[in-house]
Amino acid sequence: MGKDLEKEKKLKNKENLKTEKNLKIKRKNNILIKEFLNFLEFEKGDSERTLIGYKRDLKQFLDFFSKSFDKILEEDVIEFAQHISKKLKESSILRKMSVIKSFYKFCYLNNFVTNDPTYAIKNLRKSNYLKSKNKNENEIFTKEKKSKLKKIYDDIKLGDD
Fold it and tell me: What CATH code is carried by the domain that includes residue 101?
């Protein structure tokens, strides 16, 4: 009986530590999102509606992983793109990926991250519908990172701005 109580106590402590860690990560992410949104509002003059959308998209992206913004890797960005491509219209996918790319550019230029996990993703433009929604998951990705990105955005014209 005493061992069961002790095991239960240890389990609760582990759960509490995990919850506390997740809250710290969430706070850290939220602080940087706020910094980014302030930059967009005051330096670039973006509208309130734009800022609300950016905030929603960034929170969705960062909450998807439950890890700090500075721990996100290129593979994570690709995984997120694959995830949202199953549910959203092309225009929504392009907007979200553009927001994420802008966020990491801001982070990189302000030394919040040492590597930009979105660097290999070129600016995307609206073109044809994603055909990757119709492919099975094994066909979407290949082993090389650039091939992965090309397959995720199958039939989306990659543009160089």
Answer: 1.10.150.130
Instruction: Say if residues 100 and 118 touch (Cβ distance below 8 Å).
Output: yes
Q: Dihedral of CA 128/129/135/140: which sign? A: positive
- Number of domains, the chain: 1
Structure-token match 């701005």, residue found:
161
Predicted structure pTM score: 0.69
Tokens standing for residue 144: 């090389």
Average pLDDT over residues 1-12: 69
CA distance 122 to 49: 25
Share of the chain above pLDDT 70, in %: 68
Query: Which residues span the domain enclosing 94?
Result: 2-159
Please name every residue paired with 106 in a beta bridge, in sequence order, or none if there are none.
none
Tell me the pLDDT band of 31, cut-offs 50, 70 and 90. very high
pLDDT grade for 159, boundaries at 50, 70 and 90:
very low
- CA–CA dist 101, 107 (Å, integer): 10
Residue matched to tokens 């005051």: 42
Structure token digits, residue 45: 């003059």
Q: Are 161 and 123 in contact (CB under 8 A)?
A: yes
Q: Where are the beta strands (DSSP E) in 95-151?
A: 123-124
Looking up tokens 């530590």 gives: 17
